[in-house]
Design a protein that fits this description.
By secondary structure, this protein is mainly alpha-helical. The chain is built from three helices and two strands; from the N terminus they run E-E-H-H-H. Strand 1 and strand 2 form a beta hairpin. The radius of gyration is 10 Å and the shape is globular.
Length: about 70
């Protein structure tokens, strides 16, 4: 399933990006381009950040680029 249709990035790719160290929507965009198009997927990316990142590492997880 696509997490970001504009950049053709799958949910699995976003999860892998988070596990590789991305902690914000902006960092996800920098690493795999998800969330850099129309912005419709930003809420989904935030959900994936919440669900995927290790417990106790919540600092800045919902930060969005300006």
């Amino acid at each position: 399933m696509y997490a970001c249709v504009c950049a053709a990035v799958t949910t699995s790719q976003v999860e892998a990006t988070i596990l590789a160290g991305a902690r914000t929507v902006s960092e996800i965009g920098d690493k795999c381009a998800a969330g850099t198009g129309c912005g419709t997927c930003v809420d989904r990316l935030c959900e994936l950040l919440e669900q995927t990142e290790p417990q106790g590492d919540a600092v800045g997880r919902f930060a969005k680029s300006a």
